[in-house]
């Protein structure tokens, strides 16, 4: 104990803590290999020893509290989020806080969070000790605090949302929103939508071997749409599903929510989504998910948009033959897909109009996935880390489900849409993925879908009108929501403006946010008293647009 508190020896402990923490944060926020943290720590400790940090010649102890404690804590939160998810999306943080995080599968993240808290506490102690024992640190750390506040992306994002409240044009995206006005189709095919958790098309690159091979085989039978990029507020599961079924990014309710301290009761009630459109045409709608429907508002979204059957982990477990056959999030894919077959059989046997089934699997979930026992019997032992093993499992199980349904004749007059819900978050091949041009999976199969590949510069917003037109619906100018059908010649917003412009406008948007949460937000009297006719463009908007010539 005396050695630990010795004035001569104690500076080593804060120097080591800060050096290793700085090195680790650097490797998290960049693509540098993990071992560079040791080099960074060694340089830091060397400089500290050379300059005698913590034990200057004219040492004067002062019991002060450094200015940088709060900025350092906020920086620790950001590094934790970046380490856990790769890309930090403030929209996801805000939405999950309001929509609910019960029944989440992040038990492993809880351990990681505890470790991070302990490390941040050690960092705060180290900075406090050095500041109290070294007047140079007392002078320098206050400027360091300002630097941390100015460069923290969390605070930068909050600042941008605050600026949006006084932006000159907070209706740029809202003016481009087109309600999904449709003509009743002559035929009403059934619909099966399979969301493959985090299984982006980028995994099809040769550097990942055969991980994506089964989806390539499926793609040879139908339409493969390439170039589906990820804009802001579409990069997590609920956001990806809402973008592809409603044609809008998921802008959290935020301060528009009237009851800030209570969970949301509805999810994007102000726009018509795929479920609303199909229900109006007499479709029977079912959602089946491997995870709980209570997490992130999944159940609220699907029930609120007219799905008749909405089931997740909590609904399936009581009737499972082996209720212990679960992963930390919920059902393995082989179980979920057996239940999907049972649901489609039920709907087909009822013969009471067309049906639409949406399911969401778990096998590809970051960071390492949840391969089913069926896959492990086929692929061999899983090391618990290799995401490519889980990607291969997810792709194979999806292909097997489709082929099984085809053999039973359950996909007659049925459109099948296979897509990723979003790009993956941090996984074992993160460095290789982020070095490539990344895009989402989108494969469409059906009796009237000719095998081909189409590359368009698009986002998940464009999936919504694409599905509707593939089903035979006629859209006004091939548009719905903020999307344009990729089966038409209509240019997408990304093709016209570029994704950077869309993301910038999204950060400044207020009117679209009000539209999404209509009914939960305070009504704006000015708009009610002076209603504005909906337009898709203004003369000023058109002045800088370049039309796509095909």
TrEMBL record:
Disordered: annotated span: 528-550
Membrane topology reported for the UniProt record: Multi-pass membrane protein
Pfam families with a match to the protein in the record: Sulfatase (PF00884)
Main location, first listed in the record: membrane
Signal peptide: none
GO cellular component terms attached to this protein's record: plasma membrane
Domain Sulfatase N-terminal: 236-472
TM annotation in the entry: 35-52, 64-81, 110-131, 143-159
Keyword annotations: Cell membrane, Membrane, Transferase, Transmembrane, Transmembrane helix
Highest taxon, organism lineage: Bacteria
SUPFAM superfamilies: Alkaline phosphatase-like
Entry's localization field: Cell membrane
A GO MF label: transferase activity
PANTHER family: LIPOTEICHOIC ACID SYNTHASE (PTHR47371), PHOSPHOGLYCEROL TRANSFERASE I (PTHR47371:SF3)
Protein name: Phosphatidylglycerol--membrane-oligosaccharide glycerophosphotransferase
Organism field: Vreelandella nanhaiensis
